[in-house]
Structure formats: structure tokens, C-alpha cells
Write a structure and sequence with these properties.
alpha+beta, 114 residues, 5-stranded antiparallel sheet, 3-stranded antiparallel sheet, 8 strands
């Protein structure tokens, strides 16, 4: 099973899932090989396609939690927060920084859960 998050909520994809396309949100991606063998990643935003019993995910980043550098992510979060404050309200630039803020907060959470 694949467990991820789209813009409308959490999603679990099992074999024989109905065709689906979606936009992915930053989350902890989980790949269930078996009930007890779970591979986890800090997943950034991207796209998902499910069809013909296959799941295709296109994401900017999928990093195992034990490979996350907490101090680097905290610095990136501070930079994104500062840049968002500086950007004009409602601008594309501000939206981009707000997406980065969500990503870095999610990555910090994923790194904490190991």
C-alpha cells in the first residue's frame, strides 16, 4: 500500500485501486511492503497517477527521515518565513514561499518521528 496526502486529504492506495490523478501535498510518504515492513520518506509536493494497477508519483523530493539534516531544514524554514513576510500579499512569490514553509515544517515533523 502507498500512503500519501493530496490537497483534499490523506490517501491509501491498495492493489486494484480505481484510476486517479491528484496533486500531492508535503507529507510523510509510507510504502507498506508488508504490514510491519514500512519504508518512510519526507515527501514534497508533486503529482500522483494511479492506473492499470500502478502508482506513479512525481515529487521534487522524497528523502528518508534519517537522511534529513535538521539544522539545514530549520535554516531553510527561517528563510522561507522571512521571504514570505517580505513578499506582496496574494502574489505568486508569496504563495511559493508559503508552499516552502509547509514543506520544511513537514520535513521537520518527518525527521522527528524516527
Amino acid at each position: 500500500m502507498v500512503s500519501t496526502r493530496t490537497g483534499v486529504g490523506s490517501l491509501g492506495i491498495l492493489a486494484n485501486h480505481a484510476p486517479l490523478m491528484g496533486m500531492l501535498e508535503p507529507t510523510e510518504l509510507r510504502l507498506y511492503k508488508t504490514e510491519s515492513d514500512i519504508v518512510r520518506f519526507a515527501q514534497s509536493e508533486g503529482y500522483l497517477q494511479v492506473r492499470d494497477n500502478e502508482c506513479l508519483m512525481l515529487v521534487e523530493e522524497a528523502i528518508p527521515p534519517d537522511q534529513l539534516n535538521r539544522s539545514d531544514i530549520e535554516e531553510r524554514l527561517r528563510e522561507a518565513e522571512h521571504s514570505a513576510e517580505e513578499a506582496e500579499e496574494g502574489s505568486e512569490e508569496r504563495q511559493r514561499h508559503e508552499r516552502d514553509i509547509r514543506r520544511w515544517k513537514t520535513f521537520l515533523d518527518a525527521g522527528s518521528s524516527t
